[in-house]
Amino acid sequence: MSAANPNSSFDCAVLIGRFQPFHSGHAGLLQAALSSAAQVVLVLGSAFHARSPKNPFTWQERAAMIAASLPEAQRVRVHYVAVRDYYDDGLWADSVRRKVAEAVPRAARVALVACFKDATSYYLHHFPQWTMLNQEIDSSAPIGATAIRKVLFEAEDVDVSLGALAQLLPRTIAQYLKAWTMLPWYAPLVQEHRAIEAYKTRWRTAPYAPIFSTVDALVQTGGHVLLVKRGGYPGKDLWALPGGFLEPRERLLQGAIRELAEETQLGVLAPTLEEALVGVAVFDHPDRSQRGRTITHAHHFNLQTSQLPEVSAADDAALAQWLPLASLPAMEEQFFEDHFHILNHFLKLTHEQR
């Protein structure tokens, strides 16, 4: 059992991660944090996402599995805070600092337990006011969470696969994962994983990693927005903006209007939509889509009518529906990829804005 160092100069130690799932490498970092300060704040990233092969566990499930791996004396010293993906480094870092301060209000001296595994660890440099405690990667456990998820979703026999991962997972985590695979969302995530892998395979022989260009349409009127439920994987049954891939000889606005018509059968003429265009924004975060690097151009249309035009789902949409603006903040975990954040950009659904 790791006890806080009585000579430590830190009021709290911070450990940031997605922990999808929590594995032995993470457990080593957590023990380093517990040895550095009496209070530890575990920042659970990528919170409030819909379940996906990349984010299969809710932040509450991750907190529960981590707590279960600790003895009681350590469990009471760990605080869990959930932070969403903002796709904006400044907003994200501000949120992390604020939530750490709320968890341990009188912490003047803060340590950041860091492990630089690859280029994705750049976010650790966003906290110069904290003292960085750099930890070496455990070379005896080279497989990380991405590979563990791959084994989990490609398992022909879950017991055999979890047995092969036994040395990479705390015992209680292996038990947790076994029970989790019996729950109703495991099978759909296996299907989604297969769909994403098949998508990537089709492009694997390209001479360069492809960059996809897509368009999305946010239509607002009468206190409502027009959304679709996706009919297939990835993102089956999740809410999304009408949109899709840009065609070879198509302008961006034309593509957005075409996709809108194909998926929703919206009864509004193209010239009317062009006049109703109030904003365009590019969303280009490298990790916004699991299918590969996908840059989307979102178009915001405000029809400014009290009546809701008729819509009907078509193409690859299972449902097209007008939803009240007031209902959107509570639906964050039901959206595909970063579509909630696109809505938030235009409609200011949360208070955390630049």
UniProtKB/TrEMBL annotation:
Highest taxon in the source lineage: Bacteria
Domain Nudix hydrolase: from-to ranges: 202-346
GO molecular function: hydrolase activity; nicotinamide-nucleotide adenylyltransferase activity
One Pfam family recorded for the sequence: CTP_transf_like
PROSITE patterns assigned: NUDIX
Keyword Hydrolase: yes
Keywords per UniProt: Hydrolase, Nucleotidyltransferase, Transferase
EC number(s) per entry: 2.7.7.1, 3.6.1.-
InterPro entries given in the database record: Cyt_trans-like (IPR004821), NUDIX_hydrolase-like_dom_sf (IPR015797), NUDIX_hydrolase_dom (IPR000086), Rossmann-like_a/b/a_fold (IPR014729)
PANTHER family: BIFUNCTIONAL NMN ADENYLYLTRANSFERASE_NUDIX HYDROLASE, PHOSPHOPANTETHEINE ADENYLYLTRANSFERASE
Listed name of the protein: Bifunctional NMN adenylyltransferase/nudix hydrolase
Organism: Janthinobacterium psychrotolerans
